[in-house]
Amino acid sequence: MNSKKFVKRISLCVLSCLLVLPATVSANGVQITPDHFPFIKSLPTPEVQVNLMDSESDLTETSLSINLNRMEYNTLAVPSKILDKLKDRLQSKALYAQEKIEVSIMLKYDAVVTKEEFIEREWEIFNGNITDLNGFGGYSFFAALTADEIEQLVHLEEIASLSTPDDVVSVYGEPDEHQSEVYLNGATEMTGIKKGRSDYGVTGNRDGKASYSKNDSVIAVIDTGIDGGHIDLSGGKILGWKDFVNTSSTTAYDDLGHGTHVASIAAGTGAGDPGVETGVAPGAALVGIKVCSSNTNCSTQNILNAMDWVIANKDTYGIDIINMSIGSSGSTNASFCNKVSSAANNGILTVVAAGNTSGGSDYGSLNLFAKCSDVLSVANVADPYEGGWYLNPSSNRGTGSVGPTLAAPGTSIRAAKANSTSEYITYSGTSMASPMIAGLAALMLQASNGSLNYDFKIEDYGMSGYDKVYGNGLILGHQTIKAASGSSTGSFDNYRNHIRAQTNIAASNINLYNIKVNSTDAYFANTLIINNENGADLDLFIWKPGVEPIQNGQLRLDLAIQSSAGDLPQETISFKPTATGNYTIGVLAYDSATYALDWAGQISIP
Ligand SMILES: [Ca+2]
Ligand SMILES: [Ca+2]
Q1: 264, 428, 431, 574: the active-site residue
Q2: How many angstroms separate the alpha carbon of residue 121 from the centre of ligand 2?
Q3: pLDDT tens for residues 93-110?
Q4: Mean pLDDT within 220-240
Q5: Largest separation between any pair of C-alpha atoms in the chain
Q6: Which domains does the chain show, CATH number per domain?
Q7: 538 with 568: CB under 8 angstroms?
Q8: Do the beta carbons of residue 486 and residue 448 sit within 8 Å?
Q9: CA of 269, nearest ligand number
Q10: Rounded distance from Cα 237 to ligand 1 centre (Å)
């Protein structure tokens, strides 16, 4: 009874919830080695023109004209926020005020509120009208609404676009042919993991047999359970099962679905949708440990027990890696950290999600389990199929100099849906990024023939070197597998050119940069990270080619695309450019700050 006091309730992040992890270099063999592609321009800081506003009053004046922002820029979708097909339908239905039309609602990816918060806030509109909460991904959902209700939505600033459900939409209403096709394979493709599997002949199937055994790479998933009936996870893939919630259960199950999704990202075969939904290490085996109840509560005691159980059963099931996409805010739990260290001493790598509660003014909120020095913790980025590479604003960051270990794709990841046999569902979060790395570790283990020297290759993002936001940087999957295999051949075009800048800026200044966009096929992702932890406010502006940021001596913020206000400590703009050429990017400072700016896409320095 007294022990109940020590049972801390931990809410599991599901749906669009993100888990964020701390970045560390483990003394027990986790090494992070920066590695840059030769074709990525080793940048000197890009050419910077600094245009300082003369006075505060100037800044205030120009700030007043921010309202127009995207209107001029994106004539395709933003002016009405309603895509053409829906506009036609609305016009034809205008006489029938009570008729409901099902619409797809896409929020701006950089909206300050989450999808769930938005729906709750606008409950008068949505009450009983949501038809599919999952929509096309983390920022989308479906609802059946009247023309009047749709009209109300159009004017809300969080809305990126409204369309009929059969339109494929993306942020800013631009069609994205990838989102409905690529799913889990998209993330493994973009990181180079998919090509790495092929080039170096690894899947996690270390025993070389079609069956699963403890001699394969084995990942223990501490979560809500695993649905062994899903076709992507069946066939003996789940070698072991331990249930700390319903202690009499002997067969793997998942009454919430989070763990199934996570497990299939790490090791799903993709059998339900071959060639589309393959997990990172489809030949790896799994062990399921259920610590979370069906109401999303995961007790710390269950988690500690699970760590003990994994270590005690390491040899029985050949457990190599632990994935724990579970988290809570709070201070470091020394008992948990000790068990992670003990696992490491037993050759088990523990991968933990960094957490998903960032954004707003929340600067330092690493998942408490991600704070252990021997944990490998994972932040969440969007890959180019999802408008990236950019940091998902909800991905938790650390404080001071301590953040996650590295970042991996976890945004709009489509993977196995529990209790559906062969269906899939899209979630976003560090919960999804963590099993990307756990699965990659399973591949590395095979490529290195069992070496426990996990040497992850990364691309530096954000502030130079290790930082509290990206940790060591974004995962380079192909290079990582290549290094583990010891091969000197094979390469990967990772679809990204990356340019990075960082500097200090004084209040009431704007720094202008020029970046050349070379293709309209790829998203142009801009991520501004404010390094300070004091609430400094910066805004990000982009002027398209041919538009002069300064006209008649006036800074024309009204002609720029602008990130949404109040999105501390990060500003993000990603869009598919409608024109190639030189874009001007402005960082406007209301307060003095240190910031890092990352650009990704088919871009170069002019
Ligand atoms: Ca096997
Ligand atoms: Ca960095």
Answers
A1: 431
A2: 36
A3: 544 556 677 887 877 755
A4: 97
A5: 76
A6: 13-37+179-485 (3.40.50.200), 48-73+497-604 (2.60.120.380), 84-173 (3.30.70)
A7: no
A8: yes
A9: 1
A10: 9
